[in-house]
Amino acid sequence: MFTDDAGKSGIAAGGPGNSAESNRRTGGDLVQLVTPGGERVSHPEFDPWLQDVTDEQLGALYEDMVVIRRIDTEATALQRQGELALWPPLLGQEAAQIGSARALRDDDFVFPSYRDNGVAYCRGVNPEDIVKAWRGNALAGWDPYTVNVATQQIIIGAQTLHATGYAMGIQNDGADSVAVAYFGDGATSEGDVNEALVFAASFQSPVVFFCQNNHWAISEPVRLQSHIQIADRAAGFGIPSMRVDGNDVLAVMAATRIAIDRARRGGGPTFIEAVTYRMGPHTTADDPTRYRDANELEDWAAKDPIARLKSLLERKGLLTEDLETAVAAKADAVAKALRAGTINMPEPAPMDIFKHVYSTPHSTLERQQDHYSRYLASFRDPAEAASEEGAR
Amino acid sequence: MIKEFRLPDLGEGLTESEIVAWKVAVGDTVALNQIIAEVETAKAVVELPSPFAGVVAALHEQPGTVVEVGKPIVSFEVEGDDGGSAGGSGADAPAKREPNLVGYGAVLENSGRPARRARSFAAPAVADAAPAPVVEPVAPAPVVEPVAPAPAVAEALPAVPRSAERPRSTPPVRKLAKDLGVDLAAVTGTGEHGLITRDDVRNFVGGGDLPVAPQDLAGVSAQAPAQGERETRTPIKGVRKFTAAAMVSSAFTAPHVTEFLTVDVTPTMELLAKLKASRAFAGYKLTPLTVVAKAVLIALRNHPTLNTRWDEAKQEIVQYNYVNLGIAAATPRGLTVPNIKDADRMSLLELSTALTELTDTARAGKTAPAELSGGTISITNIGVFGIDAGTPILNPGEAAILALGAVRKMPWEYQDEVALRQVMTLSLSFDHRLVDGEQGSRFLQDLGAILSDPGMALAMV
To answer: Which of A77, A285, A379 has its CB closest to that of B12?
Structure first.
């Protein structure tokens, strides 16, 4: 009942780019609960899922979105200052990430991609742990089992298989938690994602496929990837899907709640396409002006997810000075802590590389470790090394 | 206190970037993350946010300079030790920390390796082969560094010209040399096969056998340049750098032969005048180059060996069954050779349009990279400069290049008498690996035949 038919008619003609036709393609049956101007639109199927959202919770969603945008811009600046090797900005995708992540229970398990830093933040990952891997100080920034978020997947779409496997495990355990896979529009063209959809459907596993269609797979526009709406791909696997305005935090939250509820009650997988836009580069090493029309960016800036929620709060009289001050103070504090934490992050020692390979002693590794430590010692002055040796 | 900002690796493994513009000036007060400069890497133009809050004390590099990753580009006067919101001891970190962060090995020690990736400009292989010595060791302007982070020895040692090969040594010794500021190229190795040992580096520093500064050798005081510089040094970069690499590579890989033929082109000039007056060509730009280009395309049909490429790696000769005709063009940025794709399939009218478009685009400096690659044979029009003949160097990867000289009125034999005729010299260089003297000569002869009697083209098509 939620499957969106809008795309079935429209195979848009013309060259690459998303600008001209995309408005028509994404306009149709897209579920939107808050207009770009901040007006709340009623929706008989989605509204019941938001009845419990209080004014305070709306303010908290606003805070989350402002803070994660601030973390994102601070991390981008840190990369430009040589403190991070690389950073994949999420600018423009705040509502899709916050709205969905805030719909989860603590015991649900998230399998994110490299760009889903807003999701990690909502799950309680410390911002400096988010940047740790991007600084090259660790292979992963956090322990997946303390926050129930897997390490960020760099291989496009591979995490959908992990999520499906985890969901099959939940079934074996007889638990009622849910696995959530986060991925992008480009990932839906990958074999891994297709295999994951097949398995999830076959086993009716409790997994939610949350696709952020940000319109660009690096420099490839989404309409080159798929001649039908991304959400409609799910129908081919027998998986129900929804297509929501990904810049509308309430629409995203309602859709995620619907999907999570279905999974928890044994209803199997759901596919959500959150239609959003990557307003920044693919990563800090990318220059989107080489392939993207400036007008397209302008169109999407007018649909900014934070500005939209802000307008809604304003209309409801909830945008108080207290709220704005508190949110700004929180963002400043988080950014400051992130900067200090990043710059002062302890560097791993060369020998640490051996620590995380085997859980038990391993003779080949021990031999390599010995060779490597002697190699490192050769950098020191022989006399010095000898005296240290003697002192030991 | 003074804090330095060193150029970071802005895009996954880059070793240099160009300062496009400064957004701040010395004396400006800047906030943390305020945009201070625009920098162009091989991948993108990006804005640099300030890592400190403070006052700009010095800008170390001029706009337009290509700077190696890790070099200080700007210094800030920062209040106290806290460095504003940069946070605690973190303010010191950039200096401590090597600027390239992850996964790209040790920081390059100014090894002169071609750092910038070859843009898809022409044959990429050529760019890779760019000879190291082309790069002038960076340090052009007499910039005074307010802070000297490196050990004093580094400054006492004059820069030693790099040899093409990296000095033989081991990683620990290289590390020691780097710590002591010693350039290994200046050290004589006493180890096995000339290996530089730890002791060699030590002796070099202690031994006092420092090379004499080049200025002293020349007998010119360092302070000498008073009013009016006697020399101006311009960094080798951009199109100039690329052209140089391409020319060197071409000149020293393909054995060039150049042949000349002077032709009475009066009939061609008469044909041109006739065509210009015809209705079909009204509004089109017709020049001797248009006709010569067409003549080349016609003559190539019978002499395909001039439209080939030597594939050294595969040990194969590539015969092109199409012609992408390169036209050397002087542009504001230097020499480029854009080409007309599938020129052999074009009518004279199409060719004339394509030539006009190509030269206009090139002069405006807007030639797309795709138009610069994939050429199969080239023409250079030195006649426009009033020159008669030359020995053109092949565009790398191509078997032949034709230079057309100026059309001059000269006394010339015409119907057994001396007459004033319009005469042009053709200079054809070809790669002797691919083209024998006979083939080259016959091609040139056919060209001459068409230009001296355009009707001959009928016999060749």
So the answer is: A285
Main-chain phi, psi angles of A207, to 5 degrees: -135, 140
Active site residues of A: 278, 282, 291
B239-460: CATH architecture:
2-Layer Sandwich (3.30)
Please enumerate in sequence order all residues whose Cβ is within 8 A of that of B219, keeping only pairs 6 or more positions apart, or say none.
none
CA separation for the pair B8, B107 (Å, rounded): 11
Question: pLDDT tier at B170 (50, 70, 90 boundaries)?
Answer: confident
Q: What is the pLDDT of residues A139-149, one digit of tens each?
A: 889 999 999 99
Give chain A positions within 8 Å (CB) of B8.
79-83
Q: Do A80 and B46 count as a contact with CB atoms less than 8 A apart?
A: yes
**Does any CB of chain A come closer than 8 Å to the CB of residue B47?**
yes
Contacts of B156-163 spanning 24+ positions with Cβ under 8 A: B156/B210, B157/B181, B157/B182, B157/B183, B157/B186, B157/B210, B157/B211, B158/B210, B158/B211, B158/B213, B158/B214, B159/B183, B160/B185, B160/B186, B160/B211, B161/B133, B161/B137, B161/B185, B162/B110, B162/B111, B162/B112, B162/B132, B162/B133, B162/B137
As a residue count, chain B comes to: 461
What is residue B10's predicted lDDT score, i.e. its pLDDT? 86
Q: Do A135 and B103 touch (CB under 8 A)?
A: no
Query: Which tens digit of pLDDT belongs to each residue from A2-33?
Result: 444 433 333 333 344 554 443 333 334 899 99
Each residue of A239-248: pLDDT tens digit? 999 999 999 9
List Cβ neighbours of B79 (8 Å cut-off, separation of 6 or more): B54
Please tell me which of the candidates A79, A286, A343 has its beta carbon nearest to residue B90.
A343
User: Which amino acid is residue B315, in one-letter code?
Assistant: Q
Q: In CATH terms, is domain B160-205 a member of 4.10.320.10?
A: yes
In this structure, the number of other CB atoms found within 10 A of the CB of residue B111 comes to: 12
- What is the band of B122 on the pLDDT scale with cuts at 50, 70, 90? very low
Is the pLDDT at B87 greater than 70? The verdict is no
Q: Which residues of B touch A77 (CB under 8 A)?
A: 33, 49
pLDDT exceeds 60 at position B418: yes
* pLDDT band at B83; cut points 50, 70, 90: very low
pLDDT of residue A162: 98
Predicted complex ipTM:
0.77
| A312: enclosing H helix or E strand | helix A305-315
Task: Tell me the nearest-neighbour CA distance from B53 into chain A, angstroms.
Answer: 13
The shortest CB-CB distance from B44 to any of A84, A286, A382 is to: A286
The predicted model scores a pTM of 0.58
Which of A81, A339, A344, A381 would best serve as a mutation to test chain B binding (most B beta carbons within 10 A)? Answer: A81
Q: At what angle do helices A158-173 and A191-203 cross, to 10 degrees?
A: 20
Quick check: is B193 catalytic? no
Strands A241-245 and A270-275: parallel
A202 at B interface, C-beta within 8 A: no
Q: What is the pLDDT of residues A121-134, one digit of tens each?
A: 999 999 999 999 99
Rg for chain A (alpha carbons), in Å?
23
Residues 6+ apart with CB under 8 A from A197: A160, A209, A234, A237, A239, A269, A271
Domain limits of chain B? 160-205, 239-460
Q: Do B87 and A344 touch (CB under 8 A)?
A: yes
Rounded Cα distance between A317 and A90, Å, is: 29
CB < 8 Å to A344, chain B: 87-90, 93
How far is residue B140 CA from its own chain's centroid?
Answer: 19
B322 pLDDT above the threshold of 60? yes
CB A76 within 8 A of CB A117: no
